[in-house]
């Protein structure tokens, strides 16, 4: 199937999927941010994950959609490609490191329930989330420079 023949169909498909993804992530962020019962570390990390997922979709999908409506096919420069690669690696690797932190959070909650409130306080949650973002930035800088 040639994408040039069906570019408007693919554009609408990507637009639909992107809209659903952004709406879902926005609803998660609003729910976690507004409900006082969702102030636990698990939901704190879930909010970060939702934000990362929304940003990750925004890094790639609009450029794909632009490529579908552009006739000459030249939609990105070398510098733009490098920036997009860095952003993609940054967000994707930060998301993976955040999964590790979320697994550690669940491990503490299940295996050490009496120590959980002390070990996973607000300061620890913010520190762990910050570390995932910092490691993601360094990790993506290394991968982008090697590329």
UniProtKB/TrEMBL annotation:
Keywords: Cell membrane, G-protein coupled receptor, Membrane, Olfaction, Receptor, Sensory transduction, Transducer, Transmembrane, Transmembrane helix
KW RNA-binding (keyword) present: no
Chief localisation class: membrane
Spans traversing the lipid bilayer: 12-33, 45-71, 83-104, 125-142
Stretches assigned to the G-protein coupled receptors family 1 profile domain: 24-147
Coiled-coil residue windows: none
Membrane topology listed for this record: Multi-pass membrane protein
UniProt keyword Membrane, yes or no: yes
InterPro entries per UniProt: GPCR_Rhodpsn, GPCR_Rhodpsn_7TM, Olfactory_GPCR
Compartment(s): Cell membrane
Name of this protein: Olfactory receptor 10S1
Gene that encodes the chain: LOC103582358
């Amino acid at each position: 199937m040639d994408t040039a023949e069906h570019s408007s169909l693919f554009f609408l498909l990507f637009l639909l999927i992107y809209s659903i993804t952004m709406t879902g992530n926005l609803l998660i962020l609003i729910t976690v941010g507004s409900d006082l019962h969702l102030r636990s570390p698990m939901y704190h990390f879930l909010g970060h994950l939702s934000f990362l997922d929304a940003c990750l979709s925004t890094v790639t999908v609009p450029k794909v959609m632009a490529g579908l409506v552009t006739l000459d096919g030249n939609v990105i420069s070398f510098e733009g490609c490098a920036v997009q690669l860095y952003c993609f690696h940054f967000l994707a690797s930060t998301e993976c490191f955040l999964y590790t932190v979320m697994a550690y959070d669940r491990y503490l909650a299940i295996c050490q329930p009496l120590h959980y409130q002390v070990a996973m306080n607000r300061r620890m949650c913010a520190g762990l989330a910050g570390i995932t973002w910092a490691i993601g930035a360094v990790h993506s800088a290394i991968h982008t420079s090697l590329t």
